[in-house]
TrEMBL record:
<dbReference type="GO" id="GO:0016757">
    <property type="term" value="F:glycosyltransferase activity"/>
</dbReference>
<feature type="domain" description="Glycosyl transferase family 1">
    <location>
        <begin position="189"/>
        <end position="356"/>
    </location>
</feature>
<dbReference type="GO" id="GO:0009103">
    <property type="term" value="P:lipopolysaccharide biosynthetic process"/>
</dbReference>
<protein>
    <recommendedName>
        <fullName>Glycosyl transferase family 1 domain-containing protein</fullName>
    </recommendedName>
</protein>
<keyword id="KW-0808">Transferase</keyword>
<dbReference type="Pfam" id="PF00534">
    <property type="entry name" value="Glycos_transf_1"/>
</dbReference>
<feature type="domain" description="Glycosyltransferase subfamily 4-like N-terminal">
    <location>
        <begin position="18"/>
        <end position="171"/>
    </location>
</feature>
<dbReference type="Pfam" id="PF13439">
    <property type="entry name" value="Glyco_transf_4"/>
</dbReference>
<dbReference type="InterPro" id="IPR001296">
    <property type="entry name" value="Glyco_trans_1"/>
</dbReference>
<dbReference type="InterPro" id="IPR028098">
    <property type="entry name" value="Glyco_trans_4-like_N"/>
</dbReference>
Length: 383
């Protein structure tokens, strides 16, 4: 069987986040699978050097096209170029607009339907319209969480039997407890800090995190300090480190820091290379992700794998991912986020560390690839 794969999300940039990480991790895991199937990886730009190398049974087809690639150029190629794949797998929301072969599409989340105001009008309309046709025409659909599966069923009326949940994995060789003070020095980070990692955009609720951090500092200042720490063991000197590249509608984040006078306590590192993330995770007092919505939350898994307690929102897929290994908060309430942080770094911290290290065993890229292959094979059998 010939399997076509749209892997553009893995090939867009070396600074991968979110769906780029999903596509990159899964592509490498599919490459490792022992199978007689042949793979054709479709791209619209030249192959980046860290993608799997071409080999027998694994080839790249680069089809340059400036705009509307999945809408026009890709469908044209599937109809006219031989040999034609037997099935086509789109790794991120958008399947070819028209296809002579069955399609499988992976859906990260439908947060854009719940929070349309957190997207630019152009991005929202594309996500809404292109995701809808991709899901409705697909032979099979992959969701990266049970929460996303429920949303797909609710939004599009899809038969649940067509949807399979495959959790993303994490890089087990890279993400583990790692100490490297040199990396902290590089970014001007001192010892005690809370850590956030993700794109700077409204859905991540970074403004809420900053307000919660301000409340922590205010509470400590107003209350007697314990020797070596503050309220509930809160360190006397505590910073908030925010890592990630700018997404959209991010100006208010920086304005919130300025309005609260936290310029010296909040550190923005910008995008950090993945090789540096384990040290930033491991040295952190706690990892905090108070998002309004997450389809999965790969950074949360990475943090648990690094032995860092996690504080996350009790919304969307996050409770499903974290299980009993973290602290849950109300993202709309900075006081709730603040209380969650205090719990994470208090006397129960070691319990959360151990629970997190156990929890991450559920997430494995090779297992994800195996389940993905089963879905792809089912799509062909159901023709």
């Amino acid at each position: 069987m010939i399997i076509g794969i749209d892997a553009n999300e893995a090939n867009l940039t070396s600074q991968r986040v979110g769906v780029n990480q999903y596509a990159f991790g899964l592509l490498h895991a599919l490459y490792r699978q022992k199978t007689d199937h042949r793979f054709i990886i479709y791209l619209k730009t030249p192959v980046l050097g860290d993608l799997p190398a071409a080999k027998t049974g694994w080839e790249y087809r680069v089809i340059p096209f400036p705009k509307l690639w999945t809408q026009t150029r890709l469908p044209m190629d599937l109809y006219t170029h031989l040999p034609r794949p037997d099935v086509f797998f789109s790794m991120a929301h958008y399947a070819p607009r028209f296809s002579p072969i069955p399609t499988v599409v992976a859906i990260m989340d439908l947060g854009f339907l719940e929070f349309p105001d957190q997207f630019t009008p152009k991005d929202y309309n594309q996500l809404k319209n292109w995701t809808a046709y991709s899901v409705k025409r697909a032979a099979c659909v992959i969701a990266i969480s049970e929460h996303t599966k429920k949303d797909i069923i609710s939004a599009y009326g899809i038969d649940p039997a067509k949807i399979t949940v495959t959790y993303p994995g994490y890089d087990q060789k890279l993400f583990k407890p790692t100490k490297n003070p040199r990396i902290l020095k590089k970014y001007g980070i001192s010892r005690n800090y809370l850590f956030f990692l993700g794109s700077l955009r409204p859905s991540k609720n970074i403004e809420g995190l900053i307000k919660a951090f301000a409340q922590l500092l205010h509470t400590r200042f107003k209350s007697p300090l314990r020797a070596g720490g503050g309220i509930g063991g809160l360190p006397e000197k505590l910073s908030l480190v925010i890592s990630g590249k700018k997404g959209w509608l991010y100006d208010r984040i920086f304005q919130t820091v300025a309005d609260l006078g936290l310029d010296k306590q909040v550190i923005f590192t910008g995008f950090v290379e993945e090789e540096e993330v384990p040290a930033l995770m491991s040295h952190a007092t706690a990892f905090v992700m108070p998002s309004f919505y997450e389809g999965f939350g790969i950074p949360v898994v990475n943090a648990m794998a690094c032995g860092t307690p996690v504080v996350v929102s009790r919304v969307a897929s996050l409770p499903e991912v974290v299980g009993n290994a973290g602290i849950f908060v109300d993202p709309a309430d900075p006081a709730s986020i603040s209380s969650g942080i205090i719990e994470a770094i208090g006397s129960m911290r070691n319990r959360y560390v151990k629970a997190g290290l156990k929890r991450v065993k559920l997430f494995d890229w090779d297992r994800t690839a195996q389940k993905t292959m089963q879905v792809i094979e089912t799509a062909v059998k159901n023709i």
